[in-house]
């Protein structure tokens, strides 16, 4: 059922008894044209664009648990395209443009809210770095404004501008950035893909790959064998584990990233604010809670939980930026498994095994990349060649020395 003012009025008059399930909970068929492993945002977006843009509808999305049970429901919902390097800049701007038309395309309210993001700077050197990033953004057609101290104060007057160690001197603003409702994005893509005939199969864990020589021609699952000439992996923090089932070792480490939500307060933060002197970012949800996070836990883990040292570090960052946060009670926290690549940028490419495709290494940036990732991954699967905006995100860049080190931290995943 398509959502419209008419369907809403009809269901209001009939006690809301006519609504249908958002997507079909399908039973797996023995064979498809494409199998996508992973029922999160990237996997479902790929399925949607395969069916809607490239006309490939014999597609199955295999999810080991329920739709949106992984990182899709464990993030801080930020969307942005304020990147410096050309290999990242065009890709995330494509994703940003897809975000702007997403709700109309999916016929689903994903609660996309373009309230802007301000990256604060606290020194002259940081100002110069942000000026460079802003200039790069504008040269690539992305909106960017370098703000001085007074302009930032007019937007967020509650910050500690005169902190003795970290005085706020200004910020880089992208007005088109903002937030979206994470689970609604997943549900919207699932609904749109299902309408196009995509089979969404829950509680179907991949346990192995079916090989014909070097080529991958199917998967073994907890619900039987399923074959397809093209198998696509989009399993985020589990990329290394699933790839190992095919005998591949990826340039990825898995780390935990914690996020936090406070009690609800009155409207306070107009958009997204990031602390430039430490890793802290904060926005406010539609329910009024402050949503914030910081660094990954430095150790390797597959657990969806974190440890107290990072909680303390994030709280310190918040207190340094806005001391009033100390009076707000923390309601809950959670952890997502980040697939951290060696240079902090993602991988969208064929694997060394014919028939197996990789979508991995999203580090901190997985949520905001969902539309662009799905579109470019679908293009790669359908056309057999990378989309132009994702041409730099190849797997072999580590071997060739063409790293996309956005942070300039070197080839060590826990530093990105």
Description:
The protein has helices at residues 5-13, 41-52, 86-100, 102-106, 124-139, 149-155, 182-195, 239-245, 308-321, 370-383, 397-400; strands at residues 34-37, 59-62, 78-79, 117-121, 145-148, 170-174, 178-179, 199-201, 206-212, 215-221, 224-227, 230-233, 252-264, 272-275, 280-284, 289-300, 330-341, 347-350, 356-360. It is an alpha/beta fold. An 8-stranded mixed beta sheet has the order 5-6-4-14-15-16-13-17. The protein has a 6-stranded mixed beta sheet with strand order 8-2-1-12-19-18, with helices on both faces. The longest helix is centred in the N-terminal third of the chain and has 16 residues, at 124-139. The mean pLDDT is 95.
Assembly state: single chain
The arrangement of helices and strands along the chain is HEHEEHHEHEHEEHEEEEEHEEEEHEEEHH
Silhouette: globular
Instruction: Name the average pLDDT.
Output: 95
Spans of at least 5 consecutive residues with low confidence: none
- Rounded to the nearest angstrom, the distance between the terminal CA atoms is 43 Å
**Count, helices:** 11
Per DSSP E runs of 2 or more residues, the count of β-strands stands at 19
Major β-sheet annotation? 8 strands, mixed
What percent of residues are in strands? 25-35%
Structural class: alpha/beta
Helix content: 25-40%
* Order of strands, widest sheet: 5-6-4-14-15-16-13-17
């Amino acid at each position: 059922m398509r959502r419209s003012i008419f369907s809403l009025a009809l269901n209001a008059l009939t006690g809301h008894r006519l609504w249908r399930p958002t997507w079909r909970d399908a039973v797996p068929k023995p064979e498809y044209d494409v199998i996508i492993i992973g029922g999160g945002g990237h996997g479902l977006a790929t399925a949607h664009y395969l069916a809607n843009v490239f006309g490939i509808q014999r597609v199955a999305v295999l999810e080991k648990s329920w739709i949106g049970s992984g990182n899709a429901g464990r993030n801080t919902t930020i969307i942005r395209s304020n990147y410096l390097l050309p290999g990242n800049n065009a890709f995330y701007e494509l994703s940003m443009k897809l975000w702007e038309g997403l709700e109309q395309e999916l016929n689903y309210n994903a609660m996309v809210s373009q309230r802007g993001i301000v990256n604060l700077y606290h020194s002259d050197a940081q100002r110069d770095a942000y000026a460079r990033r802003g200039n790069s953004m504008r040269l690539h057609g992305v909106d960017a404004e370098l703000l001085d101290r007074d302009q930032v104060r007019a937007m967020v007057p509650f910050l500690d501008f005169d902190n003795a160690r970290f005085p706020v001197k200004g910020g880089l603003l992208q007005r088109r950035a903002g937030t979206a409702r994470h689970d609604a994005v997943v549900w919207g893509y699932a609904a749109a893909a299902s309408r196009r005939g995509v089979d969404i199969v829950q509680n179907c864990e991949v346990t192995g790959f079916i090989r014909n020589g070097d080529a991958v021609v199917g998967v073994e699952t907890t619900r039987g064998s399923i074959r397809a000439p093209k198998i696509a992996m989009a399993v985020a923090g589990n990329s290394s584990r699933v790839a190992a089932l095919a005998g591949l070792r990826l340039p990825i480490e898995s780390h935990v990233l914690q996020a936090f939500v406070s009690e609800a307060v009155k409207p306070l933060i107009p958009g997204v604010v990031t602390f430039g002197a430490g890793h802290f970012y904060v926005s406010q949800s539609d329910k009024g809670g402050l949503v914030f996070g910081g660094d990954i836990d430095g150790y390797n883990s597959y657990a969806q939980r974190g440890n107290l040292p990072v909680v303390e570090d994030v709280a310190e960052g918040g207190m340094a930026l806005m001391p009033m946060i100390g009076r707000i009670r923390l309601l809950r926290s959670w952890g997502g498994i980040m697939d951290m690549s060696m240079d902090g940028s993602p991988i969208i490419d064929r694997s060394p095994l014919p028939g197996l495709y990789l979508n991995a290494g999203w580090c901190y940036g997985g949520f905001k990349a969902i539309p662009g990732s799905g579109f470019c991954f679908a293009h790669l699967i359908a056309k057999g060649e990378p989309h132009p905006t994702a041409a730099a995100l190849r797997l072999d860049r580590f071997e060739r020395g063409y790293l996309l080190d956005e942070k300039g931290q070197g080839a060590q995943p826990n530093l990105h």
